[in-house]
Structures
1.
Amino acid sequence: MANVVLRNVRKTYPGGFEAIKGVDFEVGDGQFCVLVGPSGCGKSTLLRMVAGLETITSGEIDIGGRVVNDVEPADRDIAMVFQNYALYPHMSVYNNMAYGLRNRGMAKPEIEARVQEAARILEIGAMLDRKPRQLSGGQRQRVAMGRAIVRQPKVFLFDEPLSNLDAKLRVAMRVEIRKLQRRLSTTAIYVTHDQLEAMTLADILVVMNAGQVEQIGSPLDVYAKPATTFVASFIGAPPMNLIPLDAEGVRARFGGAVTEAGVLGVRPEDLAISSEPPAPGGLTLDLAVEAIERVGPETFVYGTRSPGGDLAAISSKPGELPPDEIIIRIPGQEAPAIGERISVVALRHNLHLFSADGRRRIAV
Ligand SMILES: Nc1ncnc2c1ncn2[C@@H]1O[C@H](COP(=O)(O)OP(=O)(O)OP(=O)(O)O)[C@@H](O)[C@H]1O
Ligand SMILES: [Mg+2]
């Protein structure tokens, strides 16, 4: 077991593209770290650098107290699970798991014991003689996991291992991966662009954007206090509503302490339909309902913000605010009619404020 530390890690690809622009974070021994961010933000690049499959342009990667910049992948004591599993098609499940151990010259009884133990944990013991093509997608994914488990590495690295699976299997495997990692308590770094996967799996969440870290924290802290508007709209679905305010608008809403323009944020689940005025300091928005999505236990209401409500009133140029789309998320299936005008309210402590460029969270 080991911790993993990245110190000012950078990657410039041949040709000059800077894919990783100075990343620092630490994954504690036994922690499950999830790297999440949009396509192209550098997640796989970073993971492959930890694995040693990609060189590091500058900075340091440290695994278990040893700088591994110049250590070969095979000597880093890591095991990686990829999105496309990459099983050997002509080998049985057993041999797929045993292959790497044999290559390392491990004794046969030890290989047998490790493969059987992994098969038991993953519940694929009855399939050891089958070829990958005789397995379902979920079963193949388990074999890929098994291949990593038998190595008994210090660190597991996962690159979107569930993205080839259908939605239901994804959820089932997600829960299994978490249980497995708790049980083995092996340090893990897991890459995904799925924010729900990130929220549910992570002990420590690293939100990346364009080669940089936007925020690091526990999933619920990141959800409760996003550091930037990027994080605010990336974590949580539907995303946080973001409404630009001029300096006057910010002052009118949040008092004299803040004197700059900003972006007001409020999550869809923190808005409720109500004709009553909110508690002091709360927010009211007047919306024209444009679309309804009923997903079963809850309903998403899409509306356009109309002049009126207390935001227009605090704008320095009432009526000139663009008609913004607002999403609200309400429990149950009852919803207003399309075209109806409604008022929605949020409590003061559920309001977020960011700098006008979205790069900074402002305490209010
Ligand atoms: N070998 C390479 N040469 C040049 N640029 C590369 C190379 N590999 C990746 N890139 C670029 O580096 C950036 C980061 O790529 P990376 O694969 O790390 O993204 P990612 O976050 O894993 O995305 P995805 O979610 O789509 O897998 C992208 O803009 C990509 O085009
Ligand atoms: Mg990737």
Note: The chain has two domains: 4-224, 238-362.
2.
Amino acid sequence: MGLFQWLWKERQQPSNETSKRKLVKQGDRSYIEDVPYLLPKDKQEIDRLDLQHYLLRYMLQRNYFAPIHNPGRILDIGCGTGRWAIEMAESLPKTEVVGLDIIEPKVAIEGRPKNVLFMQRDVLKGIPFSSSLFDYTHMRFLIAALPQNKYQDVVNAMVRVVRPGGWVEIAEPGLMINADTGLDTLWNWLIVLGKRRSIDMTAGEHLPRFLENAGLTNVALKTVTIPCGMHGGQVGEMSAKNIISLLGGLREPVIALKIATAAQFDHMFERTKSELANPKGSAMGPMYIAVGQRPK
Ligand SMILES: C[S@@+](CC[C@H](N)C(=O)[O-])C[C@H]1O[C@@H](n2cnc3c(N)ncnc32)[C@H](O)[C@@H]1O
């Protein structure tokens, strides 16, 4: 049975794990119940993830860095809205692209390429494929979902399902640079929130180490620094919108965990908006993209 046939069959019979995923309301935002993941899962967040995807593609002028040539199968871990997987499927019509997420993206089947499929799974419970099945595995922005002691396990699983000679690529953000008081404070609350769930928001800096520990060769790192705020022109403006929306999504958990009061949060949030609207600001957000090859 082909991979896609097998997946279609799997989708008809959701596992217990799949069917019990629930969203919980906190304030006016929805979050996935019983997962370490820090960010909301709702329409606002879908819009933010799409904006972030377009911003990154514009900055990098591409969707990936691994030197892949006509891959047969691609796996995207934590595929979010499915945008990356769909674009990959469109640009590589002969490639089967599988997007895996703890909540399957709501992408209409009509109009999406036939060579992309989505699957609902918790990656913290492993990657449900046999070894060496894919030519390329990709993961982007999962830092806020993977506890510190699980990140390496997930990378190891990505390496296990990629064939010898195939490529693994991971992209994660770093800590904000040159942030003014408001943004710096909110970013620190994000770090504290992460720590409460054993998530290390600095993990992005260590991507090459994760790939090397998993036994990959030809490991390379690309770092891109994205301006955040009006000082960065159109890119800076887009990036500011993304960051403001991201930080807004932290309000409820930050207050619920008593990291800050509602008044403190709202004050810093408004302050951040003014800082990012100031053309004299200089905040920058690094993005780390690491690739590595499974030895042949
Ligand atoms: C910040 S989004 C990134 C989405 C996408 N990779 C992108 O670049 O736009 C993180 C995604 O990870 C998913 N996620 C969180 N915890 C997960 C888990 N344990 N297993 C699988 N996916 C998970 C979330 O549902 C969300 O779609």
Note: The two ends are 26 Å apart (CA to CA).
